[in-house]
Amino acid sequence: MKETLEDSIDKIYKKMDGNKYVGLPNIYGQPTMLLLDPEIIEQILIKDFSHFQDRISSHFDTKVNPLQENLFNLQGQMWKTLRSKLSPTFTSGKLKWMFSQISSCTDILIEYLNNK
């Protein structure tokens, strides 16, 4: 069975334990940096986010696979529009309110998977 991209990245992630980041030559057709340090990840995804938007230049066909139209793949105005719609859902108060329901659903999923 051929190894998936996700499995390959997972192996690299585990091998590079202790490093802050590692460069990968050709993911999504461009050089990519795999971040391993939580402080660097926070810096890029929160504090310096405006410098790192539109990171992935691959084009996804959302007519074939509509699930590809997500915050990780979208760019520019499409990304901003979707983010503004989703952001109110993930406030700390709403996440605390949803936690018990999410936990319950997770338990059901785990039980289902264990019985397969």
TrEMBL record:
PANTHER family: CYP9F3-RELATED, CYTOCHROME P450
Name of this chain's protein: Cytochrome P450
Cofactors (names): heme
Enzyme Commission number(s): 1.14.-.-
InterPro entries in alphabetical order: Cyt_P450, Cyt_P450_sf, Insect_CytP450_Detox
A GO molecular-function annotation: heme binding
Protein localization: Endoplasmic reticulum membrane; Microsome membrane
Entry keywords, A to Z: Endoplasmic reticulum, Heme, Iron, Membrane, Metal-binding, Microsome, Monooxygenase, Oxidoreductase
Family matches, as Pfam families: p450
Gene Ontology CC: endoplasmic reticulum membrane
Bilayer topology annotation: Peripheral membrane protein
Native source species: Triatoma infestans (Assassin bug)
Family: Belongs to the cytochrome P450 family.
